[in-house]
Amino acid sequence: MDVGKTEVARRLDAFKAAFKKAGVKLTHQRLEIFGEVAASVEHPDAEMVFRAVQARMPTVSLDTVYRTLWLLSELRLINPLGPRRESVRFDANLAKHHHYVCMQCGLTRDFESLALDTIRIPAAVKNLGSVVVMQVEVRGLCTNCAKPKTAKTRTKGTQQGRTEGRRR
Amino acid sequence: MDVGKTEVARRLDAFKAAFKKAGVKLTHQRLEIFGEVAASVEHPDAEMVFRAVQARMPTVSLDTVYRTLWLLSELRLINPLGPRRESVRFDANLAKHHHYVCMQCGLTRDFESLALDTIRIPAAVKNLGSVVVMQVEVRGLCTNCAKPKTAKTRTKGTQQGRTEGRRR
DNA sequence: CTGACTGCAAACCCTTTGCAGACCG
DNA sequence: CGGTCTGCAAAGGGTTTGCAGTCAG
Predict the structure, then answer these.
(1) Which of the two ends of chain A, N or C, has the fewest CB atoms closer than 10 A to its terminal CB?
(2) How close A59 comes to chain B (CA, Å)?
(3) Are the CB atoms for B37 and B69 separated by under 8 Å?
(4) Is A37 helix (H, G, I), strand (E, B) or coil?
């Protein structure tokens, strides 16, 4: 249930290199925290990481875990999962469809594709559990966010935004 | 930028039928709230819906919007988007991969597939924005949750769970 | 040594809940 | 009319932040 030893070692090297390059300090807790995420196959959330690290280092605090996790994301050593963390969104389109999600503003749009609807799922997935839905998620920068500076043409003013100004 | 008129009408019919069948009351606010989600292509969150409905019905409260949104989900008239709402999760696997997510316990696992990595994305998506990542998300019931009752064999004890007891 | 980092506690934001009055059927 | 719903206000849970002491480089 763990990531292979060699793979973890490789991730740790990338970790140290990235820290050196970014010029941030390599503290004991950062190492433990990254080690935890790198060795896990569970896609843990902050609290899971916290509990695991806490076992070996009883003084860590949950906020350090959060800060470190986001730092790691910034250095592109790990990725936050799923659509941008924020509020739950709802979808009234009950037909088969797929999603395009803007990594910057969170804009989410449906798109349809017969070809994608009929994708064959690898047999190995069967070992994980039953298959109820299969959706393709495409992430990128929406045309609006891709526009150079002067982002005056905000789509309709409402909706969409609200997602940018994250991070500390 | 809206859903077609006929489609909205169809969704409204399904809505009324489902309400009658479920024996829940069809109130003014519920109708407005559903209408808002059904006509939007934005996958709004509770607050977006709230603001939109509030414009036409200044007395609605945000909590009613929440309650209605979840009610609609229960009646399968809309679907909450993305992996179960809860905390952000992180992924240290930077290689191309896809996700299997259990709809009940939130368990999330990677799986690889050359075939899936090379899927051709429909040209229409280009109009939405650039493509940075393409991932297939398979949702279903993991083997553990699928087990009849006596779910004694909890995977490793830790991780995983924490996601079930949602909803009011 | 010194600025970056940590732990602590308090603040925040989104979401949920208990309760009394309002309204659908 | 009666039970379901709503609005209100307050509680909850996850996440973030300001501050003073601590530690990596």
Answers:
(1) C
(2) 20
(3) yes
(4) helix
Pairing of strands A108-111, A98-102: antiparallel
pLDDT higher than 70, residue B166: no
CB-CB: which of A41, A91, A132 is closest to B140?
A132
In order of A17, A19, A68, B60, B142, the CA distances from A163 in angstroms are: 30, 27, 20, 25, 31
Helix boundaries (H) for A40-148: 46-56, 62-74, 114-117, 143-146
Neighbours of A4 (CB within 10 A): 10
What's residue A155's pLDDT?
A: 38
**pLDDT digits over A101-118, tens only?**
888 788 899 999 988 898
Who among residues 94-153 of B has its Cβ near strand C, under 7 Å?
Answer: none
Please report where in the chains the tokens 């659509």 appear, as a residue. A83
Contact A160 B42 (CB under 8 A): yes
Is the Cβ of B86 closer than 8 Å to some Cβ of chain A?
A: yes
Q: What is the pLDDT of residues A138-162, one digit of tens each?
A: 989 899 888 765 444 333 333 343 3
Provide the b/e sequence for B47-65 (b: ≥16 CB within 10 Å). Answer: ebbbebbbeeeeebeeebb
Q: Please name the residue that has the structure tokens 């993991």.
A: B142
B58 Cβ under 8 Å from any chain A Cβ: no
Report the candidate in B82, B83, B49 with the shortest Cα–Cα distance to residue B66. Answer: B49
